[in-house]
Structure formats: C-alpha cells, structure tokens
Amino acid sequence: MSAADASTPAALAGIKVLDLSRVLAGPWCTQILADFGADVLKVEAPGRGDDTRQWGPPYLKGPDEEGRGESAYYLSCNRNKRSVAIDIASPEGAALVRRLAADADILVENFKVGGLRKYGLDYESLKAINPRLVYCSITGFGQTGPYASRGGYDFVAQGMGGLMTITGENGGEPLKVGVAITDVSTGMYATVSILMALRHAERTGEGQHIDVSLLDTQMAMLANQALSWLVGRQEPGRLGNRHPTVVPYKTFQAKDGSIIIAVGNDGQYRQMCKVLGVPELAADPRYVTNADRVVNRDGLEARIQELVADEEVTPLVERLVEAGVPAGPVNTLEKVFSDPFVEARGAVHEFEREDGMKVPSVAYPGKLSGTPATFRRRPPFVGEHSREALADWLGLPDAELDALAGAAVIAQRGEG
User: Are 351 and 343 in contact (CB under 8 A)?
Assistant: First the structure.
C-alpha cells in the first residue's frame, strides 16, 4: 500500500519540524520525518526558494502554471511539507523564525558552519529559548576539524571519502555513483540521529545538537572496504562490477543484454553450474570453495561468460532464480517502473494537483504494519503555506500577517 488508511495513527503525529535546509541531504531527512506524520515547515527564501527548484530539466508544469514549473529534483524530496517564505536575512524575519523555533521539536539546517549565528538562529541561541529542541546541522565536513569552514557537495565527499577509488572499471577513471548517494545516506543518518535525540528529549526534556557531515557519512559507508584497509592496509582499487571477496558476483553479457549473477555461497555455486549445464565445473578443484574462486576468478569468470553469451536474459534469470541462485537483469528506468513489483509494493505514489496535474513520488520503502508512512501533501510551491502555517504554529492574526507581508518579511505564493 502506498498510503495508510486515514484512521491509522502516525508515528510522529504532533511533532513539529522547522526545516531550514535545502538541496538534498536535509530535505531527504525531513521528508522521512514528514512521511511519518511530523508537521514540517520548509522555510524558503521568498520568490526563489530551494536551489533545487531550478535544477532541471525536466520540470513538471501545469497547463495554467506560470514560469518553468517544479523540477523533478525538487519533487523527489519535498512531499508532505508546508512551505513558508520568510526573509531570514531581515531582523523581522529572523525574529519570526526564532518564534517558530521556540515551538518546534526539531530543527534541521545545512548552512555553512556559523552561518546562522548572525541571525540568532544557531543552536546556542535557540537552546536558550527552547531547551528541548533537537537541532540537527548537516554540513560537508562537520562543525569541527580542519575542513569545517569549507562548503561541501556530494560529489566532493564521494571523492574525498574514497568511494570513487572503488567505483568504475579496473584501470579506468574514477567515477561517482549515478545518484547523490552520499547526500541521501547523510539524510538517512541524520534522521536516525534525530529520532534517537527526540527519544532522549521526550524522556528528559533535554534537547541536543547533532553534527552530521557528508564526509563522516561517506567514510562510514565504505563498510567492509574501510575495514579491509584498517585491518590489512589493502587498497581495494576499482573492480568494475566484480566483488572484492565473492566470486562469481558480477555482470555477464548475454545475447540480449546484461545479467547479474551473484553467487553468495558454495551451494549456490553448485546450483549455478547445473543451470549452465556444466556440473563438472562445480567439482573443479580451482573453484570448489569461494576462497578458491577468488584466487582463480579470471578463468572462472571467462568460462561463465562463454556459457552465458548465447543465452537470453529473461529465461536464464528465471532458471537461475528457480534453482536458488540470486540473479537479475540490468534494467533501464523504463523497465524498473513498468515492473509488476512497483504496483504490488506500492513503490510509486501519485498526487493529483488542484490543476489536474499528476505529481509522481517514489514511496518510502519501509512497510510498517502499525504506523506506516503516509503521503498527504504533494511538494509545495514556494510560500504556499506561509499564512496558514504561521497562523497554525504561532496563532498570528490576519492583521499581523498582512503587516509582515507588506514589509516583505514573508511572502505567500504569488506575492513574491
């Protein structure tokens, strides 16, 4: 199911999140919180909004919508939020955000280190008015250390964090992953950290400052590769689609496309040999155990490639899977989103906008039986909820909202 019944309790119902982040890591984090019922106010610069609103094409534009529309990039990480357009560079705007922070449970920001201090929106300033506030700072290199003052992007972190030395073909150029994986993972680590801090705050009344960086995250994501270096001082290098310590575990070229064969143990290896019609290969002393296969990988992988070359991907995958051997095709995105898995698992949710436009969204992947993710709001326009949200959180009357709008401190969609 892509959305829960309206009567299903939300895990984070009643939690207020002030989102001062933009681009991907921060918005990815706050979207997860919003999916589970938190009331997320996305604070944006009037008129311009989140940087990613301009990161296209492609853009989604309604028939009567002015301008270029919303970028697919922005739409990927901003559902279930309300947008308030506030000029935090003005004293009045900064004061307004401080009032919101006094009522918030969580604040997420990804300004450069110290960038919010001049507005009185740093952790120490806000802790003084809201001691239970969970304040999460997401940066490229952390609040401390030799690179704290640098700005950071996913691409830089992938390079500095070692991922690009283990991605790509042997002897080829270093490659980044095809999605901003460090940003996404940092957003996920931030979410986990926030929920732990929130549990502590609920139990004790004490908030705290969370310092999450792209480079720290990228180093943690190296997982077994990091430990290979720390334990054995081994530089794994780039292996393409090969696995450093499991064989065969790579792509092979079939007659009509690429197939992944991922043999995780000796039993699966024997089954693969049967499917490929070479049971004798399972008894070859060069390949009996995984340790043997790692040492002699070149000869074995070449032999498997010969056997696979005249096969068609789909029937071969079916035979391997039937025999208990993990295998699959290398799909284009068109094939990914036309797979019956998508409908069966509710992997895509479609919002319908007021102008009739369909706004697609890739659903939160975890399926919780009691408090599932829900998809209540499409990604908002800049400042779409400025008046509504400020009235909800702060009880501001129309006269005060009019005065703030007249002074260009806030803007509603269409006003700035």
Answer: no
In this predicted model, what pLDDT tens digit does every residue of 92-107 receive, in sequence order? 999 999 999 999 999 9
Between 386-394 and 91-102, two packed helices, what is the crossing angle to 10 degrees?
50
Starting at the edge strand found earlier in the chain, the sheet holding 106-109 runs 208-213, 134-139, 106-109, 16-20, 39-44, 81-86, 410-411
φ/ψ (deg, to 5) at 153: -125, 160
> Backbone phi, then psi, for 246, in 5-degree steps?
-135, 130
Q: Please, what are the domains in the chain? A: 16-221+343-411 (3.40.50.10540), 249-337 (3.30.1540.10)
Q: Using one digit for the tens of pLDDT, what is the confidence trace for 174-207?
A: 999 999 999 999 999 999 999 999 999 999 999 9
Contact 107, 135 (CB under 8 A): yes
Structure tokens at 85: 């357009």
What is the C-alpha end-to-end distance of the chain, expressed in Å?
38
Enter the tokens of residue 79: 């559902």
Alpha-carbon span 89 to 408, nearest angstrom: 11
pLDDT at 416 (0 to 100): 41
Q: What are the residue ranges in the chain where pLDDT is below 50?
A: 1-4, 416
Among residues 50, 183, 216, 339, the one annotated as catalytic is 183
pLDDT value for 4: 46
Which residues, listed in sequence order, are joined to residue 136 by a DSSP beta bridge? Answer: 108, 210
* Active-site residue, 51 included: no
Quick check: 92 and 403 in contact, CB under 8 A? no
Model confidence pLDDT, tens digit, residues 287-335: 999 999 999 999 999 999 999 999 999 999 999 999 999 999 999 999 9
